[in-house]
Amino acid sequence: MKTQWIDELGQRVPLSRQPQDLQTYGRDWTRVYVPRPSAVVFPRHAEEVCEILQFCSQHGIAVVPSGGRTGLSAGAVAAEGELVLSLERLRDLGEVDPFGLTLTTGAGVTNHEVHVHCEHLGLTWPVDLASKGSCQVGGNLATNAGGIRVLRYGHARHWVTGLQVALMDGTLLNLGNAVQKDNVGPDLRQLMIGSEGILGIITRATLRLALLPTDRQVLFLAVDGMEAGLELLRHARIQGRFQLQAFEYMGRNCLEAVIKAQGVPSPFGGSGELPPAAVLIEVEGRLDGELDRWLEQVMAQKLVQDGLVAKSSADINRLWAYRDNITESLGRLGLMHKNDISVEVGRLAEFVHTLEKEVAPTFPGELYLFGHLGDGNLHINVMKPSATDPEEFWDGCHVADMQLYELLHKLGGSVSAEHGIGLLKKSALGFSRGPAEVATMRAVKKALDPEGLLNPGKVFDL
Ligand code: FAD
Ligand code: 2HG
Ligand code: ZN
To answer: Could you report how far apart the first and last alpha carbons of the chain are, in Å?
Structure first.
């Protein structure tokens, strides 16, 4: 491979070809593709991002934008000799605007750093996910991240007023600022959000902030399975006179995986059998006994078998850790094939029924179900049996996936609720998006990146 261009670029901007950096920055959280970037660049400001893109356009070099590399669909993977462009040095973090409740930040600031920055003012950016320590604002917006508070606040796209984006030809677009009301033609900010780095590179964002929830109440409840969890959700939404912040579900084997991988005791105490499933509910505000009354009702109706109510912030963190640690724990116990699906909440019972009866037996491993029940979003993880060869396992999963996607198509669900398409889910795209819609996406991509150099092969092939 000709590498003269790498030396030339390395004289202009910080660049690494160290094998360790190529391994680290050439991949995200997924472990399906072998990272093979040609180099990694670390621009220090937006103008350098533009300079790199212009250089790459002139030399026909493919570029992969890389954030915190926590993505779960291989969107930030560079397996074909691409140049990785890391945003980690774009770390300017401004002051909170106390009038408009906004904050302007570089794309490379982590989600958690934004939270800490606003906390002392009683404010937060309500995009909250278990990967918050590593994922970056740019990555959150490029994936339109969901997370554990979507039920209350919606996805990341609702919490942005301005974006700065570098295009493949080196143009820098300033799309909006901290102004809240701004209806001037088609909204290019929203086009960029969720586009997984195929249309432009986010260099800076102005975020909307929300009040940090006070008087957080957290319940960890044992339920009989998915149907009971859904019934509980219906009760919470209709009869509970409180504001839900989160409503999360995990099957028994997920809980077992966390207990085993993290070396923690059962949340329900003792050494007795774990319940078929558990639901973590977070509610905000002073409730004057309303939550206790609701809990008594659902226990009387036998919707809940056992329950814990957090009594302190240490308790809240301890209970949330059972949910937050699922992905990490499953990853430690084995190789996982992942699906991230959603259907209307009202059709989730029907979906799970068919999944368990017809689709689950076709997967070549045990299924682990958990997710954001309140959003109709389930994470279906399949663990590779230790005796199965990885290639055979991936192939078997891809065959079974097609049945899963057919089922979702029939129910009008989504093949990617929050993680995006990236490289991994390209074969799923057509089950949730029609041919005319995909053709329109391609036309937009071609208009902004005619040579297809920005994150090539992600979402769809040109
Ligand atoms: P990366 O993985 O680096 O990149 C993701 C995509 O965005 C890639 O296509 C990349 O090319 C592109 N990209 C990155 N930065 C930029 C930029 N500045 N400009 C343009 N494109 C860019 N996701 C959820 O939605 N909800 C969850 O609850 C959730 N929980 C998670 C829990 C764990 C333990 C893990 C490991 C992941 C979880 N994720 C979740 C997935 C992941 O954290 C999110 O998708 C996150 O938003 C990715 O951010 P990142 O900075 O790590 O992006
Ligand atoms: C979560 O909700 C993430 O914890 C990760 O979206 C899901 O690991 C997964 O499948
Ligand atoms: Zn999730």
So the answer is: 24
Structure tokens, 288: 């004057």
Distance CA 216, CA 319 (A): 13
Measured from the CB, is residue 338 less than 6 Å from ligand 2? Answer: yes
In this structure, the residues whose C-beta lies within 6 A of any atom of ligand 1 are 28-29, 64-72, 75-76, 87, 107, 129-131, 135-136, 138-140, 142-143, 145-147, 196-197, 201-202, 327-328, 418-419, 422, 455, 458
Range of the domain at 45: 4-86
Ligand nearest to the CA of 420: 1
- With the most atoms of ligand 1 within 8 angstroms of its CB, the residue from 33, 129, 134, 327 to mutate is 129
Residues 110-151 pLDDT 10s: 999 999 999 999 999 999 999 999 999 999 999 999 999 999
CATH assignment at residue 79: 3.30.43.10
Can you tell me the distance from the alpha carbon of 442 to that of 461, in angstroms, rounded to the nearest whole number? 9
Task: Determine if the pTM surpasses 0.85.
Answer: yes
Whether 131 maps to a domain, the answer reads: yes
Q: For ligand 2, is residue 458 a contact (CB within 6 Å)?
A: no
| Residue 461: partners with Cβ closer than 8 Å, 6 or more residues away | 426
Between the CA of 243 and the centroid of ligand 1 the distance, in Å, is 28
Give the span between the Cα atoms of 135 and 131, in whole angstroms.
Answer: 6
Nearest-CA residue for atom 47 of ligand 1: 140
130 CB under 6 A from ligand 2? yes
Share of residues in the chain with pLDDT > 90 (%):
96
For residue 458, being part of any structural domain is answered with: no
**Is 36 inside any structural domain?**
yes
Residue 374: which CATH number? 3.30.70.2740
Query: Which of the listed residues 416, 431, 451 is the one where a domain comes to its end?
Result: 416
* Ligand lying nearest the CA atom of residue 421: 1
